[in-house]
Amino acid sequence: MPILEMRGISQIFPGVKALDGVSIRLYPGQVTALIGENGAGKSTLVKILTGIYRPNEGEILIDGVPTTFASAQAAIDAGVTAIHQETVLFDELSVAENIFLGHAPRTRFGTIDWRRINSGAKALMLQLESEIDPTIRLRDLSIAQRHLVAIARALSVEARIVIMDEPTAALSRKEIDDLFRIVENLKRQGKAILFISHKFDEVYEIAENFVVFRDGRAVGQGRLKQTPQDEIVRLMVGRDVKDVFPKVEVAIGAPVFRVESYCHPTEFRDISFELRRGEILGLYGLIGAGRSELCQSLFGVTRPSSGRLVLEGKPLDIRSSGDAIRAGIVYVPEERGRHGLALPMPIFQNMSLPSLGKTSRSGFLKAANELALARKYAERLDLRAAALSVPVGTLSGGNQQKVVIGKWLATQPKVIILDEPTKGIDIGSKAAVHAFIGELAAEGLSIIMVSSELPEILGMSDRVMVMREGLAAGVFEREALSAEALVRAATGNQ
Amino acid sequence: MNRLLKNREILLTVIIALMIAGFSTRAQGFAAPGNLANIFNDTSILIILALGQMTVILTKSIDLSVAANLAFTGMAVAMTNAAYPDLPLALLIVMAIGIGAFLGAINGYLVWALRIPPIVVTLGTLTIYRGMAFVLSGGGWVNAHQMGPTFLNVPRLPVLGLPILSWIAILIVLGAWFVLTRLPFGRAAYASGGNPTAAIYAGIDIGWTKFIAFVVSGALAGLSGYLWVSRYAVAYVDIAAGFELDTVAACVIGGISIAGGIGSVGGAVLGALFLGVIKNALPVIGISPFAQMAISGIVIVLAVVFNARAERKAGRIILRDRGAKEVSA
Asked: Read out DSSP for A442-482?
């Protein structure tokens, strides 16, 4: 009998159905792997299980009894605990304080019982086969040791259901082995574990059961032993994408931009590729593969440690984003709100910001030129605003996005880098953005499109480069594109 | 937000007018043109310093060292004037601006190159610059009889009915307006404070922008050093002690967001005038100096509350629009 069962869970956000009738079961003493692309609904499920979201439909049963989690505390009380990808701990507190924060044992007088905190923490760490001194400050620990503390914290609340959200992302192979010994230990204690991971080798190593999510649905589940990897990859991607993205056929011209063995001290290594006129190069990979870091470096926000850029036959020396813009390379960042706009400033000033060199006359700003520039791109993008002098902050999200795109087009770039261009927007707007990207390519722009969405990558790209752990894991021409091949390259599972 | 800011300027003008009208019922002649000109002249130095402070605050920084910079520079020019009475005044003014700009550049460099938070940098240099004023003077005073007549009198000379000190303030106001609205540096300052990340992505060098803002603030503090020493005809270590807080207060009252990126020259000037009117009026209507400080403080807190409310209102508009869009989608 399962400890925890979710039946027909749906979670609806405005415009998006994040989870659609999902049912899963977790059994005592067993690890269930949750597999799916970025955005398939894994995080939403974790948030429901930890009491952060309340599902719109469906029920959760613990030991067969229907339960609702009114709050995060209610989920903890019901015995559910999550160890997050980035551990949520306090650097300046001791190991023991971190473990018992919020549920510290008290003395008779209501003060914190330090003896029991420290001895309790020590016992928990020993259970994890670790001899970390519970009085040491967290900031003095390694990432792997912090993970142990997070696990100890999970155990300190006497959880029966443990969710591990990509626990191995930051660990070395040896640390992963240690973690897996702990997981085996937890299994023996009869805990049910939900293990979220992208890495198939780990999943096969540690898990008994699997659930595959795609687009908010549980598309397959079963015993891992009886399921070959190919089957799981097929479940992850399985859909026909050609119909959804009618790609505009563009005559691809001469090479425009070349990147030669680009390296960064920590984020990526030895990246080389060439971009042609009118070409859309898809950049695919899992989160943390170094795609955004590569793009930011091409744009001059961070400096590479070595490598060379060549634009139209001339070598480039890009030391700042200003250099990149002048050379004709622009980057439309992923988080448009945070990276894209100065909300208190008027629309036209936001649009002209990277083009001030062009709109100014002998070092003086010319408001008339700025307004003309803004008007041109506002018309082209069908921007709806009362006036171009109102602050961007008063616009709706969709119109703010148009301001961001207009701002970059106004610089008349040769190469445009789009980082997750359709993240967080509804399906209708997505189609409009895709059509617009097609138009840009038709006008002869060269486009690098970073995306974590396979259908988007498959549907829009002329060529795809897959990155994995900071390395180019493969380049695929359009004829050779297949979802399976991309996922294999991205997960490193041949 | 622009309309809101405009409202703020109109609102401040109305409040200042009401205050003047109110005070004139208690103190005859308070609203007379001559007295108003006096108040403006009295507030000139605060206006100049507030505009420097505003430039820095726009970039999401703060300059707490302006008053110490003023004290050091004032002491330096006063001692120079006492020791070499033959040096032309123009040279002394250039020297004041130069020293001030250099001290500002030290702040700016520490913020830019070493990435130390501006409040920490200028809290440190505040003490250092005042200490330097002490070392320079050995704790001594430079009194009126040691200063040359030109040094003392030029800011007082009336031109077209206003003293030169007032005209200098008016010129600085126009200059600040021009720099902040008509030069790329001004736009960069607004963008750096409004959204630093977006500014970087748009090719703006935030560090350099902050550096320039501190140099501007320092230069204006240096100029104010000469004006202060000349106006009060005395230079000693503690002149303008605590005045940096008045400059910040003028900005806050004038609607310049402490979070950066929002504010206008008109707002800063009105904020300074608001404080100037209160400071001039309270003694006239017989309120004790202790109550004056408390009243100034209450006004500043009220202004901050008002700013916070105005900014929150803007946030709500965004949310409402987003909500509307999501419903229609």
From this structure: HTT-EEEEE-S-HHHHHHH-SEEEEEETTEEEEEEEGGG--
